[in-house]
Amino acid sequence: MKIVVNGEAAEIRAATLAELMAELGYADAIVATAVNGAMVRKAKRDATPIAAGDRVEILAPMQGG
């Protein structure tokens, strides 16, 4: 199905946010996630469905000085 990940069109097979994270190589990454503008906690990713047309944001923490 087609979705948007971090502003880029993507063709995916995942049915849940957790599956999408694994498909994109973020399974063990420490990141924040949002689906259609709503933040999704790590504990809820398995139960968060992904549908065609969804907009997913995956944000890595930034460090600096």
TrEMBL record:
Pfam families: ThiS (PF02597). It comes from the Bacteria. This is Thiamine biosynthesis protein ThiS. The lineage of its organism: Bacteria, Pseudomonadati, Pseudomonadota, Alphaproteobacteria, Hyphomicrobiales.
